Amino acid sequence: MATKHEQIIRHIMSLDVGHKISVRQIAKELSVSDGTAYRAIKEAENQGLVSTIERVGTIRIERKEKEHFKRLTFAEVINVVDGQVLGGRGGLHKTLNKFVIGAMQLEAMMRYTDADSLLIVGNRVKAHELAIKAGAAVLITGGFDTNEHIKKLADDKNLPIMSTSYDTFTVAEMINRAIYDQMIKKEIVFVSDIYTPYDEVHHLYNSDTVEDWYKLNELTSHTRFPVIDDASKVSGMVTSKDVVGIPGETLIEKVMTKNPFAVQAKTSLAYVAHLMVWEGIEVVPVVDPSHELEGLVSRQDVLKALNEMQRQPQVGETIHDVISRGLEAIDGEPTVFETDVTPQMTNQLGTLSNGVLTTLVTEASARLLLHLKKGNMVVESLNIYFIEPVQMDSHLIIKPELLDAGRLYAKINIEIFNGRKLVCKGMLMAQLMDR
């Protein structure tokens, strides 16, 4: 039987896109408490089913596929520019394909204003009307309003017409920044991108027995199962090691590992990878904020995702990307690297920042391990025990050296030279993720 939380999520999924949702409304319709309704709506927001807009409320939106670039919805544009909706609230869930700045003659402006685009324009009422009729949303800058008949037209066509106090140039910069930030976020892999969802996960209950474990093992060939209570909350994990030699009538809760490590859907892949190698875990339950089981993520899932990430094209550039791109192997010496210190890599004093230095050390170490076919690494500890200031435009030589390595760990010594002068020495300990 589905929990109240699951019933609310299913109810939200059944609503039409653009439908407005409130805690009281959900609580009344499904006979649940306000607290239960609030937590379920927040979970729906995490799943991309609804969006909460200041001064507008929470509305049902189209769920976007993770593997595609996430376009901004008009609802998100409102939040970005701190604006207000004048009309066409029913279209806030629609996505922005492009925006046009209306700083030209009316006829020329309309040549560039297509359906599903956004016209950014000042107090030009005729432009507002023509854009809505062409199937475009309108963002009015400078804090201006528009005519009532245009608001009604926007309502009829479900196309938002919005207003913001910022000027046109500032608004364009804010929207560009938001789009770019989302491009960067696309590169960050979360548990929600890779985990096996609840309806595909085999699990046991506290009241089940060791004999039930053997039946599930025979059915699935799996050896690790999460254990949940009557409220679907994770209470333990049970593996083949836990049941060996145990009588079949023994309750699972007597042999399981209680309070296992668990993660939430918004946990990053990097954290899960570190947790698995650090704790030697093969499978981690995925839970919601109330600790109810949502799915499982395995070491195989993590390794597959790490390999996929290395093949993805860059779609948004972080400072880490800038640093890594400038780090190149020296001809004839594939494990010795060089880079130039650019202005983006310096602190307010014009010298190489500590954060960038750490990135150079870890990136060079990771490349060394990949060259030696040791696999991916997760940094366990990094000690910089000698450092001198490095000025802008310096040319650095980075020499990582593998001192010791086992099946699951590596110890690397790193030296960094500016010309012939040693400017940094460090020691890195890493856990290895076998490919």
Automatic annotation (TrEMBL):
Species: Pseudogracilibacillus auburnensis
Residue ranges annotated for the CBS domain, each copy included: 256-314
Name recorded for this polypeptide: Putative transcriptional regulator
Transmembrane stretches, start-end: none
Keyword list, A-Z: CBS domain
Gene3D superfamilies: CBS-domain, Hotdog Thioesterase, HprK N-terminal domain-like, Winged helix-like DNA-binding domain superfamily/Winged helix DNA-binding domain
InterPro entries for this protein: CBS_dom, CBS_dom_sf, Diverse_CBS-Domain, DRTGG, HotDog_dom_sf, Ser_kin/Pase_Hpr-like_N_sf, Thioestr_dom, WH-like_DNA-bd_sf
